[in-house]
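Hi C.,

You asked whether I'd gotten around to modeling the 187-residue construct. I have! Everything is below, sequence then structure, no commentary in between.
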Amino acid sequence: MASTESSSPGSSYSGGIDRPMLLMQGGPNTGETLALSTSHTTLGRHSDNDVVFDEALVSRRHAVNMETGAGFSIRDLGSTNGTYLNDERIGEDDRAIENGDVIRLGGGRTMRLSTVGPATTDVVVDTRARQVYVKGERLEPPLTRTQFDLLMLLESRKGEAVSRRSRIRCGRNDLRATSATTRSSNR
């Protein structure tokens, strides 16, 4: 699954695979993706970074993702709160990152590296418009809010078990929104 948020369709990585992406997890940008479209992608709080995070625990120039001959690597740029790869704090040496690796900046912002092959790009999610496209066609009827939230939850936890409680929570959020709308229209 890909997102139209920041990824660029048609870009290709070695061997015909779409460029690797970072999938945002947690915070206001959950579910958004960022294609690693350059050989050098800086991450941090300052506006001159390629990817800007407006969060107190993220340093002005926090980390950098770099394309190598064998794939991608990440390096901490001397940040105050550290860069973590799969819950292990990394130093200022390059660390190889692979599909499914979890990167965390400081104490909060989490991203998962995803290398997407051509077969999986049949489904595209536009997170801003909350629309799903299958093989280029918009899904009709569109997903309900609960279904869309569940899709985003499953995508953010790709490769992990998702608890029943988390799945149910998606439905409850939709019921609360529906109840509030019904109450306000009955007044």
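If it helps when you're writing up: The first strand starts at residue 2 and ends at 3.

Thanks,
B.
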